[in-house]
Amino acid sequence: MSMSETLELVSANRSFGGWHKRYRHYSRALDCDMEFAVYLPPQAESERVPLLWWLSGLTCNDENFMQKAGAQRVAAELGIAIVCPDTSPRGTDLPGEHDSYDLGSGAGFYVNATQAPWKSNYRMYDYIIEELPSVVRQHFPVNGRESISGHSMGGHGALILALRHPGRFSSVSAFSPIVNPMNCPWGQKAFTSYLGDDPSSWRQYDACELVANGASRQRLFIDQGEADQFLEEQLKPERLEAVCEEHDHPLTLRRQPGYDHSYFFIASFIEDHLRYHAEHLMKR
Coiled-coil annotation: which residues (predicted)? Predict the structure, then answer.
């Protein structure tokens, strides 16, 4: 058994009749040890179950969603497993990796970096779309039906992964996603560092650009808080709304009055998202 196929159990907690477990493994894509979390509903003890991927935002790791979103109760009812990867490589000690919250550690942006010093480790796109799914399929009782969701930077990740791989995910949703990273400070900083100065190399990682290019016809389901402190400068959902309308791309964008960018917002609407994904995951 190769190193990448070996999992080390970090912790296990009983939750709503199922199990929340954390694992450590060596990632070839990222060339470092990585941790991820999985929630296995009670049904997983006797049958293979569908899977929801959750991608977290800046500064987060695998623990934020599992501890704060309150997703396990509904996931247990619906019989859906949830996998939460980390948001970046860890322990690589690259120059500048820990200088700011929005670049480097905790800020992988779900891209494959092409620029030094990032390109050898910061390959989160390959990790999420290829390597970790292979590990999960090998070690857990999942049935091959997958959906994807995420928050902020992770919402960006969920959207681009689904748009670039039509048919891979039964459904896609996002909370407060960075929909147009090419044209916001967070995205411009990360893309310049990871991908270089040529914006043409950025387009493959921008949901607005992917919709405009007709990458997919899959419906996008998004919740956005109207009191989000990052709404105007970083998130700009109206840009995705406009490009979806222009290209007749299915979009459900719910603006939620009074809600901010925090996990209080996610916890308030995660049940809607889980039930939305269950409808698609259970279709035959």
Answer: none
Q: Which residues pair with 88 in a beta bridge?
A: none
Catalytic site residue 25? no
**pTM value?**
0.97
Q: Which of 152, 171, 193, 216 is catalytic?
A: 152
Q: Where does the chain show beta strands of DSSP type E?
A: 8-15, 18-27, 32-40, 49-55, 81-84, 142-150, 172-175, 220-225, 251-256
What's the pLDDT tens digit per position in 216-250? 999 999 999 999 999 999 999 999 999 999 999 99
* Catalytic one of 228, 249, 277, 280: 228
207-225 in b/e form (b: 16+ CB < 10 A) is bbbbbeeebbebbbbbbbb
98 is catalytic: no
**Within a 10 A sphere around the Cβ of 240, how many other Cβ atoms?**
25
- State the distance between the two ends of the chain, measured CA to CA, in whole angstroms: 34
- Cβ neighbours, 10 Å, residue 163: 24
Of 249, 261, 273, 277, the catalytic one is 261
- Report the distance separating Cα 269 and Cα 262, nearest Å: 12
Cβ count within 10 A of residue 37: 23
Pair 172, 149: CB distance under 8 Å: yes
Q: Has 261 been annotated as catalytic?
A: yes
